[in-house]
Amino acid sequence: MDAIRFDMPLEEALTTQRAVRRLKPDPVDDALVLRLVELALKAPTGSNAQSWEWVVVKDRAVKAQLARRNRQAWSIYGWLGRRATRGDAKMQRLLDAVQWQAEHFEEVPVVVVACLRGVRPVFPPVAATSYYGSIFPSVQNLLLAARAAGLGAALITLPLWSTFSVRRILGLPWNVTPCAVIPLGWPVGKYGPTTRRPVGDVVSLDRYGNKPWKGRAAAGIA
Ligand SMILES: Cc1cc2nc3c(=O)[nH]c(=O)nc-3n(C[C@H](O)[C@H](O)[C@H](O)COP(=O)(O)O)c2cc1C
Q1: How many CB atoms lie within 10 A of CB 129?
Q2: In this predicted model, what pLDDT tens digit does every residue of 54-99 receive, in sequence order?
Q3: pLDDT in tens, 167-220
Q4: Pocket test for ligand 1, best of 108, 156, 191 (most atoms within 8 A of CB)
């Protein structure tokens, strides 16, 4: 395999990374997948515990079982989502992409499942925060690295509606929790740009609700 390069400017990767669900069935080299996970592991974890476990799924039979779980959740979520967003063309397009992924899940070349050792603590609430906070930064690293490598990827959770079942499918012990699923492959279409709310709408100054930058982008602020 040619040397893997991740030299895309950070701002370009951040602004064009997005959920890419339509993927070609063409294979992705193991070395590239492992490098993505290696870069994911540069993320922070609570107490630097690094209690993650990663499962790279390439076996079609295993993918088919995850696909089944995904379709089960989609059959409800999709129906509700389509109804709730009738008349919203953008949301309908997003749901079309989710549906495409549900219908082609087995053909995706690689599905990465990010897991954590332990089960989600219930109390105190901050323990749950730092539990999930110890996996999602790494997942975002992986998504950005995939973007820089020209791969398509999306963070999805619909297949995890039954963690019991996913533990069984992947052979995970009871004390390893699947937290995120990332189908990976070469994209059918193009990346980004993404649409997001203006920064000034979501940032308060000093106290919640004080929004002096409302409606504005960072570039428009002196
Ligand atoms: C916690 C979480 C769970 C998600 N679960 C799913 C999912 O099950 N299926 C799916 O297609 N997308 C899923 N997404 C992807 C979101 O729909 C996507 O990030 C969002 O629509 C923004 O997409 P964009 O970056 O392309 O604009 C999930 C995202 C997050 C953060």
Answers
A1: 12
A2: 999 999 999 999 999 999 999 999 999 999 999 999 999 999 999 9
A3: 999 999 999 999 999 999 999 998 878 889 999 999 999 999 999 999 999 998
A4: 156
With tokens 């309908």, the residue in question is 92
* Probe residue for ligand 1, chosen from 18, 94, 155, 161 as the CB with the greatest number of ligand atoms within 8 Å: 155
C-alpha 213 to ligand 1 mean position (Å): 27
- Work out whether strand 152-153 and strand 110-117 pair parallel, antiparallel, or are unpaired: unpaired
Beta-carbon neighbour count of residue 179 at 10 Å? Answer: 23
Cα–Cα separations (whole angstroms), residue 13 to 148, 150, 176 = 6, 10, 31
Q: CA 185, CA 110: separation in Å to the nearest integer?
A: 7
Residue in the block written with tokens 């400017």: 9
Among residues 20, 49, 27, 26, the alpha carbon closest in space to that of 144 is found at 20
Q: So what's the architecture of 10-191 in CATH?
A: 3-Layer(aba) Sandwich (3.40)
User: CB-based contacts of 32: which residues, under 8 Å, 6+ apart?
Assistant: 1, 4, 149, 151
* Three-class secondary structure of residue 122 per DSSP: coil
